[in-house]
Amino acid sequence: MADTGWPGCAKSLKGVILDMCGVLYDSGEGDGVAIHGSVEAVKKLKASDLQLRFCTNETQASRETFVAKLQRLGFDISVSEVFSPAPAAVAVLKDRCLRPHLLVYDGLLPEFDSVDKTNPNCVVIGDAAEKFSYQNLNDAFRVLIGLEKPVLFSLGQGRYYKETDGLKLDVGVYMKALEYACDLKAEVIGKPSPTFFQSVLNDMGLQPHEALMIGDDLVNDVGGAQHCGMKGVQVRTGKYRPSDEKHPTVTADGTCGQPGSGCGHDPQSEALSTP
Amino acid sequence: MNPTPKTKQHLSRVEAVIVSELQGATENKNTLSTSEEENVNKKQELQLKVSSMAGRRALKAVLIDLSGTLHIEDTAVPGAQEALNRLRQASVAVKFVTNTTKESKRNLLERLQRLNFDLQEKEIFTSLSAARSLLEQKQHRPLLLVEDSALEDFTGIDTTEPNAVVIGLAPDHFNYQTLNKAFRMILDGAPLIAIHKARYYKRKDGLALGPGPFVTGLEYATDCKATVVGKPEKTFFTQALS
Predict the structure, then answer these.
(1) Which ipTM score applies to this complex?
(2) Mind listing the domains of chain A with CATH numbers?
(3) What is the predicted pLDDT for the residue at B132?
(4) Cα torsion at A60, A61, A66, A69 (round to 10°)?
């Protein structure tokens, strides 16, 4: 009888989904910094029988750009293995014939090249960092408040993330701000949306119980994955805070690594020891 | 903007009345569509009402709203000056209350005096005053995210090594860097004080985001609740009457 609890269930896993920022690397000046042990961990996973995908809410750069950055940091990774919100958003916009007013980081704009942006009938916000100026937010607000049926897409709903110089406000904060201003609910594209996780599982050809998500964001990575039927493990790097281990609603199936350094062995080696 | 039943309950406890009935005579805040004669009659009616209430229930104080009640922008509500003068003859303390976050008491005083209202600066209590009062009470040192024109109402408050965040209507401060600074302070335990949580306001060039969205965003980021000090919060009224 298969053990469904962690870490025993690791033996029945067929795939691992890795979050990127805060698990593989910390962003910051230039390319950022690889988290100690992560390059080796990815190598080990690729050498195993497990399927591997990368799932990120990165929205400051296009996939090609940030995959190239990770390759420079020493990671064995390719664009086809990476799932991020912008391409998912483009698919939704085209499917619903929506023309977006974009409030996103400049580096993400190329992902929207094929999208008609004239006469916008919706707003898309991403992790725009310094571009979250009062002026830009006001412009997005005015588009929404002027629409009969305002639609706001938020690429993720994270509260904050870690850069090398400390914690910084993430897209979710500005999503809440515009929701309050316009009295509407945003649609989240990216983690923790179940549709987003399902698209990764579909690509792997796996059922949720056969996959494990490893991330630094307790609510959006771990909680989101668990909500879909996957196991979720939190690493003690990136935006992890000790208070996460006493969270009122989300309990990770496992927590690994020492604060500040990577999870190079658990749970990957547990997962690797398949019968 | 009528006081909620809950607010009235709080106030009757200390025998004060918000002269929001006065607003009945100035229903439409944006235009002076009610006839002047109607306004004057309604004010006289109210004046009699307040005086008799004062006699009956030992009314000690009257709080009067400003914008929309005594004046609309730079125009006085017709008959309001006379109503105020008559009110002064009753033995009640009078305070002028407003939710402004952009104007200092001095600015408000100058505008009202230009419109021939008889009042003194010390009788004006704004949502900025409520914030100041709270800061003094708790001995907080604030990071003040308020318009420059409002800063003078915080003169004398120590702002070195801030341990509290105060947010008013301050578009110049609602940039990524400043909000990040506020966010990190709140994560470290600094209380978040909001002058009020208006969603947006009307500017000459169209609608513009108020402080509410940014306060809401910071509450989400830090998993904390802001203390809102402006009307209609209880804090505002208890501070005004203290």
Answers:
(1) 0.83
(2) 6-83+191-273 (3.40.50.1000), 85-189 (3.40.50.1000)
(3) 94
(4) -90
